[in-house]
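note to self — DONT lose this again. spent like an hour looking for the file last time. sequence + predicted structure for the chain T wanted, 137 res
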Amino acid sequence: MKKTLIVMLLLLIGTIVFTPVVLADESGEGNVQGTVLTEKTAVMTENGIQAISPQEGVNRINTALLSAYNAGASVVPNLALIALLVGAIMAMFAAALSLEKILKISLLGIAVVLIAVVIVYAGPFLTALAKGFGEGL
């Protein structure tokens, strides 16, 4: 009875989890905010290094971080899907063969992957929330 309950629970979790991941993968990158570039300054130092304004430096760092986030966010659904699939298969085999330690490890792995996916997709929301709190102070 316990094995059947665990297998059914894993199938239910898999159905609930895989649907948003697949749909998020199909949505594309249309929801990413564009960056605003300021005018470039062309002040050269005596060493030949071009100086930029602080706002330009901030914009360059923001653009680099946004590009890194977009690159990582486009890979996360596929990696998460594979990790969840492997974890679910391991958990089903462990439940069928009464391997309690492997079952606990695979369920913990599934939980870690789910938490990582939530953190990646909640990143823009948490950033906007922090920015809103910062503007309110």
